[in-house]
Amino acid sequence: MGRIVNTRTLPLLATVVVFVLIYAVCAVQYPAMLGLRVMGNLLTDNAFLGILAVGMTVVVVAGGIDLSVGAVMGLTTVALARLIEGAGLPPALAFALVLALGGLFGAGVGAAVHYLKAPAFIVTLTAMFLARGCALLISTDSIPIHNAAYDILAGAALALPGGGRLTLVAGIMLLTFLAGGILLHGTRFGAQVFALGGNGHFAQLMGINTGRTTILVHAFCSLMAALAGIVFSLYTRSGYALTGTGVELDAIAAVVIGGTLLTGGVGGVAGSFIGVLIQGLILTWITFDGTLSSWWTKIAIGALLFLFIAVQRLILVASARYGRSGAGPAAPNTPNQATSAPASRPSSGAAAPSAS
Amino acid sequence: MAVTPPPVVLAARGLTRQYPGVRALDGVDLTLRAGEIHALLGENGAGKSTLINLLTGAQPRDGGTITVDGVDIDPDGPGGAVRAGIAAVYQEITLLPNLSVAQNLYLGREPTRWGLVHRSRMNREGAALLRRFGLTIDASRPLSDFSTAVQQLIAIARAVDLSAKVLILDEPTASLDTAEVQTLFTLLRSLRDQGLAIVFVTHFLDQVYALTDRITVLRNGRLVGERRTADLPRLDLVAMMLGKTPTAESHLSRRPATATPAGAPLVRAEGLGRRRLVGAFDAELHAGAVLGAAGLLGSGRTETALLLFGVETADQGQLLVDGKAVTLRSPRDAIRLGFGFCPEDRKLDGIVAGLSIRENIVLALQAKRGWWRRLSTAQQHELADRYIKLLDIRTPDAEKPIQLLSGGNQQKALLARWLATEPRLLILDEPTRGIDVGAHAEIVRLLEDLRDRGMALYVISSEIEEVAAYSDRVLVMRDRAPAGLLEGESITPAAIVNAIAADHHTKGAA
After folding, report:
1. Theoretical Cys-Cys bridge with A103: which of A223, A242, A322, B510, CB 3.0 to 4.6 Å?
2. All structural domains of chain A with their residue ranges
3. How far apart are CA B243 and CA A17, in angstroms?
4. How far is CA B273 from the centre of its chain?
5. Which of B94, B107, B136 sits opposite A191 (nearest CB)?
């Protein structure tokens, strides 16, 4: 029986509670927000952010951070527009190309983090400037994409009851979350990501190739950023170098609100999904209200982030305090020791495992 | 020599490792045989850790060969060493507390189905593996749910399952209590009987004789010799380790203060305690006297020091310094009163690993003076050199990063840090933990010198014989509460053990 609330699931639980609360407030005030139509739009509008959050979750669980995802996304949209409009490439080929480049870019970032032993913060900041600069070099204007196949993909949607639509981009996001969840929680690679985030040195002592893991983690994150770029270009049917300025921070916010610890080793994509939805929901609520500036979203997200960071800290402190007295075999109330103090130790040590 | 020795599993020849300024290992040989437990012994800085790091590939070697089953190996990292059949378990548990027990056991080699980790099978196999090591636990639970002793057994299970040829144990018993040590020994003996070659690094000589078959002794990075444990009397072993004929364990002869302390105590704790931390205890600390504290791990002995140094704030009782009641809200308050504290975990709470020895030594004095009254570089050098000489800290110079020193020398540097502030009361928590026999004697001698110069000392130690040797009074802790106070002639190792183990009240048994 032990502890009823697991310190690992408590942050996620808190996130779900906050989401339900916000959703309830929304539903009471604007019953129209309950429908699948609003839900469908919520998923479509935040598809790119969700995909970024999947990549970011993996990096943060591994104990790192990636500030370049917004810039990579912007670079992807403008590169796509130039490849399709300028070079006349079929969209499928252009997609494959930008995804491959995105992955390679991330691998380079990961290699720099590992081999230069440089903090991910600085390396990805550098990568952010690099990617944004390249994007602006390609074009400083927004390039519209006129392509038949593009129009079909952008318009593709599954009709939901109640007039809602599950668009292709929303579907891609949901699939990305599913894939990210399986990658992180179901594969050997995922276990290595958690190991790296838990303690990189110990992971290495246990025979994990931490260099390979670091490179793959960043490659995956940039791949997701490129995919987010594709999704965003489908959503807007254009490419613009300044797309996604600052969204890396929204993605990090979603990850942290979702209960993934910035110190690494604990977390998952399910929480990040809810983190994205919370951000989208607040924006939708402000849109419904109509009188508030949309910048209130940022204020609300800021307040929420602060709340979650405080909650995580409290949980850590509480688990350190009660965890010590709980896990330590020497429970304070063992007055009836049979013979001697040393002899009492193995029995209470055995009691801890059997407490499951 | 009638018995034919068992086959050699691992042979290391001429291993050499050069650090800047120090040859940490100089042409050392090590021979491990199947079905033997081999003690690797030596004083601080003898090269034990370096030798282990070369065997496990954690550090590259500058010379020499390692063969396993007659095949040359050159591990490029822990992964390579594990593939060659060498695995190590460290005093500090190097598993991942954020993963489950089973994930820790099978990290990197999880059973898979359809390309995904087969979690239920992994948990099942993990539990079955641990049962063979005498642990019946749910392997799907997070590692952090379990005690250090259990985590250590899990680490051993992982290492043996990974590579069943050579198992290296670096100070495995340092954080275990007596019963847990016995469990570990039973396990190691059964592993030995299965044909494993086990390297056992420790500074507990009793454990060497209780467990091992063969002994290799290192000193100053060189091989002193290899002997069968049964053929090597303890006195000769100590002589090999110290490189001199010791006067038989002289530091253990009782040498209490020349004059029994009289008059008002410097510091007096009356019913000091804190809920959830430690029950109310009394303590009197006199100038020129040593109050020892004994007890098992988790008995609350460290917690008494935390209260006396203001790391934790007491919520009951009172503390009198020079007869005046004071409240310690932080270590700063304690330092201002002239207290010093050498904590138990040097790496975690004590040394600033990246800074030089000089910077570590001047730290406390500088903090006491306030940062605007900076010690000049010349003063710092003078101070550092004086204490390096006084405490015999073995280092080429004061500018070496402290993390490159051996444990005993780090401990001395920490001691120097507090001595530089010329404290009136010095609190030491496990001053000889993780330190070898020779340095034990040195540290004990240092403590006696400090006491004779009129300092009040509060020494927490699990080395009961040492506590008995240098203490004027001994506070015995049990179950986070005081269990007795021994004074004068009644202080003997046997009496302390009795007080720790007694199930009746021995309070005031003097």
Report:
1. A223
2. 10-323
3. 67
4. 27
5. B107
Predicted local distance difference test score (pLDDT) of residue A273: 95
Distance separating the N- and C-terminal Cα atoms of chain B: 53
Cα separation values, A18 from A15, A23, A305, B357, B443, Å = 5, 8, 12, 51, 57
Q: Which of B330, B322, B319 lies closest to B272 in space, CA to CA?
A: B319
Q: pLDDT digit string (tens) for B58-83?
A: 888 888 888 888 888 887 777 788 88
Cα–Cα distance list, A124 to A113, A135, B93 (Å): 9, 16, 32
Give the gap in angstroms from C-alpha A199 to the nearest C-alpha of chain B.
7
Chain B residues whose beta carbon lies within 8 Å of the beta carbon of residue A325:
276
Q: Tell me whether residues A345 and B117 touch, CB distance under 8 A.
A: no
CB A191 within 8 A of CB A216: no
pLDDT value, residue B257: 53
R_g (Cα) of chain A, nearest Å: 23
CA distance B457 to chain A (A): 27
- ipTM for the whole complex: 0.76
Q: What is the 3-state secondary structure (H, E, C) of chain A?
A: CCCCCCCCCHHHHHHHHHHHHHHHHHHHHCHHHHCHHHHHHHHHHCHHHHHHHHHHHHHHHCCCCCCCHHHHHHHHHHHHHHHHHHCCCCHHHHHHHHHHHHHHHHHHHHHHHHHCCCCHHHHHHHHHHHHHHHHHHHCCCCEECCCHHHHHHHHCEEECCCCCEEEHHHHHHHHHHHHHHHHHHHCHHHHHHHHHHHCHHHHHHCCCCHHHHHHHHHHHHHHHHHHHHHHHHHHHCEECCCCCCCHHHHHHHHHHHCCCCCCCCCCCHHHHHHHHHHHHHHHHHHHHHCCCCCCHHHHHHHHHHHHHHHHHHHHHHHHHHHHHHHHCCCCCCCCCCCCCHHHHHHHHHHHHHHCC
Q: Which of B93, B145, B187 to mutate to test the interface with A (most CBs of A within 10 A)?
A: B145
CA distances from A353 to A1, B141, B206, B326, B421 (A): 10, 9, 30, 43, 47
Asked if B331 reaches chain A (Cβ–Cβ under 8 Å), the answer is: no
Consecutive H or E run containing A120? helix A120-138
Residues of chain B with Cβ-Cβ distance to A316 below 8 Å are none
CA-to-CA distance for A80 and A100, rounded, in angstroms? Answer: 13
The answer as to CATH 1.10.720 being correct for domain A10-323 is no
Structure tokens at B488: 């004068």
Domains in chain B and their CATH numbers? 8-98+142-245 (3.40.50.300), 261-501 (3.40.50.300)
Closest-CA residue of B relative to A190 is B117
User: What is the average pLDDT score of chain B?
Assistant: 81
Is there a contact between B138 and A353 if contact means CB atoms under 8 Å apart?
Answer: yes
Strand bridging mode A157-159 / B316-321:
unpaired
Which residue in A191, A265, A356 is closest to B110 by CB distance?
Answer: A191
Is B283 in contact with B269 (CB distance < 8 Å)?
yes
